[in-house]
Amino acid sequence: MSVAFRRESDEEHLEPKFEVPIPPGPNLVTAQGLVRIRARIAELESELPTLTEDADRNSAKRDLRYWRARLATAQVQPAPTGELVAFGCQVRFVLAGKHRTIEIVGHDEAEPARDRLAFTAPLARAMMDAQVGEFVDFNGKEEAIEIVSIAPLNAE
Predict the structure, then answer these.
(1) Pseudo-torsion of CA 49, 54, 60, 66, nearest 10°?
(2) For the chain, what is the domain count?
(3) Could you state, in chain order, the average pLDDT of each consecutive group of 10 residues for the chain (156 residues)?
(4) Which residues contact 128 (CB under 8 A, 6 or more apart)?
(5) Has residue 19 been placed in a domain?
(6) What does each C-alpha distance from 23 to 28, 32, 101, 107 come to in angstroms?
(7) Are 62 and 94 part of one and the same domain?
(8) What pTM was computed for the model?
(9) What SUPFAM superfamilies does this protein map onto (predicted)?
């Protein structure tokens, strides 16, 4: 029989499992973000002994390595004053005639569908250091965004 038709095991044909990618740059977090990281680690640590399938255990171990790395590199940012758009702020603004509100948070806290953007997102970066009433450029357009209000995020 030709070697081309032989198969030693199903394992050699499985897709490789890679580590969960860690976003580049500093791991800035809010105080609430740090609480969430610790809670996720505790959840995974308590779940791990209950998992019986190897694939599930390996997946949980991989996730646990990610969250432990994020905890080890977390840099809790001081609460902003609300005078300027900064990390940890809620910003109300007008873009293309529409009023919107976003929260600027760390990568692991970001949920774009819930208007929680990472501080590295283009929209968040465009508004950084702006003040209420200021117009900022965005997406190649001058004065595309008007900052309406800025407030520090409340602890959840």
Answers:
(1) 130
(2) 2
(3) 55 65 89 95 94 89 94 95 95 96 95 96 96 95 96 76
(4) 84, 85, 86, 104, 119
(5) no
(6) 11, 19, 24, 7
(7) no
(8) 0.81
(9) FKBP-like (SSF54534)
| Residue 134 covered by a domain | yes
DSSP 3: G
Closest Cα to residue 25, out of 70, 55, 64?
70
**CATH number (domain holding residue 134):** 3.10.50.30
DSSP string, 57-84: HHHHHHHHHHHHHHHHHEEEPPPP-SSS
**Cβ neighbour number for residue 147 with a 10 Å cutoff:** 19
CA distance 45 to 47: 6
Q: Which residues partner with 153 through β-bridges?
A: none
Instruction: Report residue 56 as tokens.
Output: 């599930």
Residue type present at position 26? P
Residue 60 lies in a domain: yes
pLDDT score of 24: 84
C-alpha to C-alpha distance for 37 and 43, rounded to whole angstroms = 10
Task: Provide the pLDDT for residue 95.
Answer: 95
Return the structure tokens found at 78. 């001081």
- Please report whether residue 16 resides in a domain: no
CB distance 87 to 119 below 8 Å: yes
- CA-to-CA distance for 40 and 19, rounded, in angstroms? 17
Domain, as residue range, for 40: 24-76
